[in-house]
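Annex B. Sample input.
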Amino acid sequence: MQKFLEDIIKKAGELTLDYRRDLSKVRVDRKSAKDLVTEADVAVENLIVAAIKEKYPSHSILGEETGATKGDDNRWIIDPIDGTVSFVHEQPFYSVSIAFEQAGIVTNAAVYAPVLGDLFTAVKGGGAFLNGEPIKVSGCDDIGDCILATGFACIRGGLKENNLPVFTKMMPLIRAVRRYGSAAVDCCYVACGRLDGFWEFNLNVYDVAAGRLILEEAGGRFSDFSGGQDRLFLQVLATNGLLHDRVSEIIESARKHGF
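Annex B, continued. Sample output.
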């Protein structure tokens, strides 16, 4: 199972690179006023889905571009290009993200950032890896020393509650913030210690299903903003665990009281 997952995500990543070599010829459409989808997104997802259907024809599939294919309790969750805006603008921070779950539990995951050459993988109970080497979260326990990442899908979606009050409250309290544009990459960067945490509103399960397992297998913590599981994906908080409660407290304070 894991070998198949890693083989197919590498092929998918290579296909993104093929398209990236001449982006001027890649068709770009709009899902909404600010959300993009390219022919590369669709082609990559089709490649992955075709391989799964050939190898595991009874399995269910959820893909960002092709939607849900109903099968048994085994399900593949696919984001063919997480970070399409970065991809279109020739930036390296995009990824292919694939998770496999059994009866609602993600057991296998891979996130591949092909331009960067980073392949993050995890098997439930077996640890997390970057290019085959074990990884773990950072040991940072001081909010003033930490580097966090965030995103603004909420603003692209025109949501009334957005990330700007949280961002404004968080910035003076931490060392730095990063904005990579791929939630899957953000989770994996927390997993390997390149970041100490990540928060974002209004994501989807395919954005973070793989990254969540990789993070948790590396010793991190994943929750909604309050530290629970009730509002997952509408609220994503991923940290090294040591900072989780403090970051949660700051986010909740900003949401309740503004800045």
